[in-house]
Amino acid sequence: MMNGLGSTLPLYLIDASAWSHYGSRNPVTGFIDHISHRGVIMTCPPAALEYCFMARNKVEHDNYRMRMEKLLQPLVHPTVHDVLVIQSALWGSGLVCAAGASDTLIASYAMLNNATVISCDKDFGHIAAALDGALRQIRLVP
C-alpha cells in the first residue's frame, strides 16, 4: 500500500502521549526508534502543538519545535466534513466523550495521509472502534 509520498514505506503519526515517553529507557523509545528505521514519521499541526505544549521552559520548547519541524508534514489536510465524520461515528457508537477534538483531528490527518497513529492512551483505539477499524493505530504501554 502506498503512503502519501508515493512510497511503500509505512507512514506513522506519533501522538504527544507517545512522544512524552520518548528518550527514557522504556518500550516506547525502542518502538519509535525501530519504526523510524523502517518507515517515515510524520506530524501534523495538532500533534505538533500538543507535543510542544508539554515543554517546561523555552529551551525545551525550542528543542521540541525543532524535532517537529524535521518530520514529514502532511500532504493532505482534513476538511470539516472529514473530522465530523469521525465525531459522528463516536456519537453513533456511544463513545461521545471517548476522544477529544485534538485527537479527532489527528486521527483525520492520519487517515487522509494513510498513516498509522502511535499513542500511549486509549483515545485512538476508541476512534478506531467507532470507525470499524478504518483508523490504523498502535497503542504502546510505557
Q: At the third CATH level, what is the topology name?
A: Rossmann fold
Flag low-confidence runs.
none
Strand and helix order: EHHEHHHHEHE
Taking Cα atoms only, what radius of gyration do you get, to the nearest Å? 15 Å
Helicity level = 40-55%
User: What shape does the CA trace take?
Assistant: globular
β-sheet strand percentage: 5-15%
CATH superfamily assignment? 5'-nuclease
Task: Note the main sheet.
Answer: 4 strands, parallel
Helical stretch tally? 7
Give the helix/strand class.
alpha/beta
Keywords: Hydrolase, Magnesium, Metal-binding, Nuclease
InterPro entries: PIN-like_dom_sf (IPR029060), PIN_dom (IPR002716)
Protein name: Nucleic acid-binding protein
Pfam family, one: PIN
Task: Note the main attributes of this structure.
single chain, 142 residues, 4-stranded parallel beta sheet, 7 helices, alpha/beta, 49% helix, Rossmann fold
Structure, briefly:
By secondary structure, the chain is α/β, with parallel strands linked by helices.
